[in-house]
Amino acid sequence: MNTMLKRVRIPLALLSLTALAAACGGSDGGSGSVSDEVTVWMYPVIGDPEANAEYWEGLEKAYEKEYPDASLTIEQQPWDNRDEKLATAFSGGKGPDVVVLQPDQIPQYLANGALAPVDGAIKDYADKFLPAALDALSDDGKAYGAPIYHTITTTLYNKKLLDRAGIEEPPATWADIEAAAPRLKAEGLATLDYSASNEATLNLNFYPLLWQAGGKIFSEDGESVAFNDDKGVAALTFLTDLYEQGAIPKTAMTNVNVVADQALGKQQAAMGFTNSGIDFGVAEEAWGKENVIVGAPLTGEKQAAFGVPGALGINAQGNIAGAEQFITFMTRPEQIESLGKAAGFLSPRTDVTVPSDSPYVEKLQDALSVVVPGESSPIARQLMGILAPEIQAAMTGKKSPQEALDAAAGQADDLLARQR
């Protein structure tokens, strides 16, 4: 996506996707010492703007108290155009010392030589991170991101609507959804809300279904795409059949990963399948807390859920020593816990649990066991723009699922070939 959700952020929420970043200290190609200035670009990861500013101001003071010779400046940055701004900075040799990365960003920056490994910063506790989180941030045996939080998505159900259709158990599998669809339709309701807008991230619509079908976005060697095989066709056919039946609302075509003011939030669809704590809060306000059910990730051929580690990476042209020191500080248990409490993040460390009074946190924590943090590729971001309109074409009957996926695969393989 831009993988950022266009949703209202509230402190209660367990965020789906966010980023932090740091901007340039020195231009000495990595020769800086820990006494040099480290400048951090920070994004509004805490819902309340005042609380967000207060948190990072406090952290800045705590860091400089512990490291009196260091100078840390945390600058607040907007989400808009963050990738473009960062790419421009890197290409101009003035990129940030430390940058928050999601897994799908790492290949494109590695290809440009913009990142340095973070292994030195986390060497004392690399084995304490969730294996899937660190694996997703690694390349050729080296870690290029140090996790500071983890996100997860799972199912969200409206109990009132299920009750109206006489459905006692929330649909937990694809087969359950197909069985529930006629009963909900008889009540004038859609079954599954979906975000098929070209601007919506596929990480929160098609990709989780692809993984649940047992499929993959890319081939094992990364030289070609794999989403147009029989697994991908099964996932897209599941969608097209539901849409044709009216089990997915027509508003899906313009939904950009939003719950409020869309079919799910307006109680016109009974469930969503890639929802986060942000959405749970929206649902509580719209439906009443007694009607909110949070379940396990959906199961097709297998069970899978999307979630990502948010991680700090190091600019290869920046103050590497200072960046490592800051990353070591930020990945300690006390920082993981404090950031998690302030913003609603899950912990990326196996030895740290973020305290929460949310009634849904146990479900979210359990979902981490089947998390898929995306699939990394230099074309991961461009691919979404290629694939999204083809999925729309299939859902609206303009192409068959196989035709749509083959068309996207042809364009994507051409892009991959140009990377070699």
Describe this structure in words.
This protein has 420 residues and is α/β, with parallel strands linked by helices. It has two domains: 37-151 and 307-372, 3-Layer(aba) Sandwich (D-Maltodextrin-Binding Protein, domain 2), CATH 3.40.190; 154-303 and 379-419, D-Maltodextrin-Binding Protein, domain 2. The protein has 15 helices and 14 strands. It has helices at residues 49-66, 82-91, 106-111, 119-122, 131-136, 159-164, 174-185, 206-212, 230-245, 277-287, 320-330, 333-343, 361-367, 380-395, 401-419, and strands at 37-42, 71-76, 98-101, 115-116, 138-139, 142-143, 146-150, 154-158, 190-192, 269-275, 292-294, 305-306, 309-315, 371-372. The strands form five sheets. Strands 3, 4, 7 and 13 form a four-stranded antiparallel beta sheet that branches. The protein starts with 36 loop residues before the first strand and ends with a helix.
